[in-house]
Design goal:
Radius of gyration of chain A: 14 Å
Number of helices of chain B: 11
Oligomer: heterodimer
Strand order of the largest sheet of chain B: 2-1-3-4-5
Helix content of chain A: 40-55%
CATH topology of the domain at 310-460 in chain B: Heat Shock Protein 90
Shape of chain B: rod-shaped
CATH class of chain A: Alpha Beta
Number of helices of chain A: 5
Order of helices and strands of chain A: EEHEHEHEHEH
CATH architecture of chain A: 3-Layer(aba) Sandwich
Number of domains of chain A: 1
Number of strands of chain A: 6
Shape of chain A: globular
Strand content of chain B: 15-25%
Distance between the termini of chain B: 101 Å
CATH superfamily of chain A: Response regulator
CATH superfamily of the domain at 310-460 in chain B: Histidine kinase-like ATPase, C-terminal domain
Largest sheet of chain B: 5 strands, parallel
Helix content of chain B: 40-55%
Structural class of chain A: alpha/beta
């Protein structure tokens, strides 16, 4: 298994679970988000990600839209059942806004179109973290 | 011609006529004509039979054929005229008068009158009547001495009376006149036929001329149709090409975007780790730029292949143009390009894909700006074509223009005149498709003269709603 985990124990901005069937992109994201203060765990399939989600707590889910077996939309729906406050961001290589908008209707917080730069992704992640923190503060259970 | 009215002879004392004719049909035909006119007719098959019957029947007039077996017409006549008791009986010979010798022979034998074959019924009856009436005159004259006549080296002695000769010559003249009249008649008929023929030829010529003209017109039409067919075939080819391109584009886009994302992120990371004065930084930046370009190309391809996913809403074209200008306003100002807006008042709203229109205008404004490069004007006019419920948009620049030789190619996918790295060659193909999807047209005209620029004419109207998830117009 090629799952990746990056931890920065002291200065964690947030915990992100990254899911993409493209292993190079998944590992790149994990490696690059680590230095930005994010604790990351990367998976190649939605099923693996869901198993981990049941035992571990994450703030954000960054997932590809088009994947074999379980696609991004399904994964978001299933993960929201485990953690209703999980904030999801969809990555799409389709190049069309339409597919991303469809995904957002099923519960994604935002979307980003591949290829993208870290400079584009980071503001998106920090906005997502704000919402996550807000939800956690309202809901003391989390 | 005055009609001859025969004097009907007294039926109680019919005038007797003897016919000498070896052909029974001809004899009977003659008999019929004469009997119809009140004559008493006897028929003899030849000269000899005629002579035999003369004594008994005492005919007033004898009509004889010339060529007959046993005794011919001349012989019969000569015999009659030699007989003192019979000589006063007028003899009419039926002849074709084909030879002057016939006339001399007839005179020699003392014939009173000629009737030419085929005979004219009226002429025949007139001759008979004339002979009958003048019969007494003839009998008054004494027989003269013979007149010697030489014809073609032969000598003839004519013993006829002056009246006989005169009658014969008159009948010859009459025949000639009749022949002449016939000839004139025939000539007239010929003229008439000729004129008719000419008229027919003219009519036919005219018909042919019309037919040829029609055929030529049809041929011309055919040529035009052929040309149209060629154009349509070309368009079909173009459409097929675009469809294939679209499928290809969407299938590779997803595959390409993933590695591009990885490369883009890795390069970004490396660049960040390299200090400003490191010479490798420049190389990494170039890689980054090129990766970005690849991303744009893929994105363009995807836009191009995207057909069914439309977001339809009510769009104000002028407002959309303004929004697009805003996007590239900075760039236009930097190149000192003036924008002239000629927006007609009250341009109707249309149902359109805002995203597509934005792309259409952006492509065209960018093209215009590239063509101008620096210092020029971009004129954008919008007007409503009320009768067709279409909106006409004209975008005119003062740029370098498009040379006529490449004008037909510019809408082909991947055809670009921009420097390497500046264009994907898909812009105009996308523009045309967008216009077509809005039930419109897309035309580019240019004289190819620098400064005179290029004019793009677009018509747009409400898009046909085929996407049920399209936004509702309110």
């Amino acid at each position: 298994m090629k799952n990746v985990e990056q931890k920065d124990s002291n200065n964690t901005v947030g915990r992100i679970i990254v899911v993409d069937d493209e292993s190079e992109l998944m590992s790149t994201l994990c490696e690059m988000l680590g230095p930005q203060g994010y604790e990351t765990a990367g998976f190649l399939t939605g099923a693996e990600a869901l198993t981990v989600l049941k035992n571990q707590e994450f703030d954000l889910l960054l997932t590809d839209l088009m994947m074999p077996e379980m696609d991004g939309v399904e994964l978001i729906r299933a993960s929201l059942e485990i953690d209703p406050n999980l904030i999801s961001i969809i990555m799409t290589g389709q190049g069309t806004v339409q597919t991303a908008v469809e995904a957002m209707r099923t519960g994604a917080f935002d979307y980003i179109m591949k290829p993208f730069k870290l400079g584009t992704l980071l503001p998106l992640l920090s906005r997502a973290m704000q919402v996550r923190n807000l939800l956690s503060s309202i809901d003391p259970e989390q | 011609m005055t009609e001859y009215r025969p004097q009907i002879p007294d039926p109680r004392h019919p005038i007797k006529i003897l016919i000498a004719e070896d052909s029974i049909t001809q004899a009977m035909q003659l008999q019929n004509i004469l009997e119809e006119n009140g004559y008493d007719v006897t028929i003899a098959a030849n000269g000899r039979e005629a002579l035999q019957s003369i004594g008994a029947s005492r005919p007033a007039i004898i009509i004889s054929d010339i060529v007959m077996p046993e005794m011919d017409g001349y012989e019969l006549c000569r015999t009659i005229k030699a007989d003192e008791k019979l000589r006063d009986t007028p003899v009419i010979l039926l002849t074709s008068l084909s030879d002057p010798q016939d006339v001399i022979k007839a005179l020699q034998c003392g014939t009173d009158k000629f009737i030419t074959k085929p005979y004219n019924k009226i002429q025949l009856l007139a001759t008979i009547e004339h002979l009958h009436v003048n019969k007494n005159l003839q009998s008054l004259e004494e027989i003269q001495e013979g007149i010697p006549v030489s014809y073609r080296g032969e000598s003839y002695l004519i013993t006829s009376t002056r009246l006989q000769i005169l009658n014969l010559l008159l009948s010859t003249y009459e025949t000639a006149m009749a022949k002449n009249l016939d000839l004139i008649g025939v000539q007239d008929e010929l003229k008439r036929l000729n004129a008719e023929l000419e008229e027919r030829v003219q009519q036919r010529t005219e018909t042919l001329r019309i037919e040829i003209a029609e055929r030529k017109a049809a041929q011309a039409k055919l040529l035009v149709k052929n040309e149209e067919l060629n154009v349509v075939t070309q368009q079909l080819w173009q459409a097929a090409k675009l469809a294939t391109m679209g499928e290809l584009a969407s299938s590779i886009a997803h595959e390409l975007n993933n590695p591009l994302a990885t490369v883009s992120l890795r390069v970004e990371s490396l660049t960040a780790q390299t200090s400003q004065d490191d010479p490798r930084r420049r190389e990494l930046e170039i890689i980054g730029q090129e990766v970005e370009r690849m991303g744009n190309l893929v994105s363009n391809l995807l836009q191009f292949s995207r057909r069914s996913q439309k977001q339809i809403s009510t769009v104000d074209i002028c407002e959309e143009i303004e929004n697009t200008i805003e996007l590239i306003h900075y760039h236009l100002r930097k190149s000192n390009i003036q924008i002239i807006r000629e927006f007609a008042p009250e341009v109707p709203l249309i149902l359109a894909d805002r995203q597509q229109l934005r792309q259409l205008f952006l492509n065209l404004f960018t093209n215009a700006s590239d063509a101008i490069a620096k210092d020029g004007t971009l004129t954008i006019s919008v007007a409503a074509q009320s009768e067709e419920e279409k909106i006409l948009i004209e975008i005119t620049d003062t740029g370098v223009g498009i040379p006529p030789e490449i004008l037909p190619k510019i809408m082909e996918p991947f055809y670009t005149t921009k420097p390497e790295g500046k264009g994907t060659g898909l812009g105009l193909a996308i523009c045309r498709r967008i216009a077509q999807e809005h039930q419109g047209t897309f035309d580019i005209t240019s004289e190819g003269i620098p400064g005179k620029g290029t004019k793009v004419q677009i018509t747009l109207s409400s898009i046909e709603k085929e996407n049920p998830i399209g936004l509702k117009d309110t």
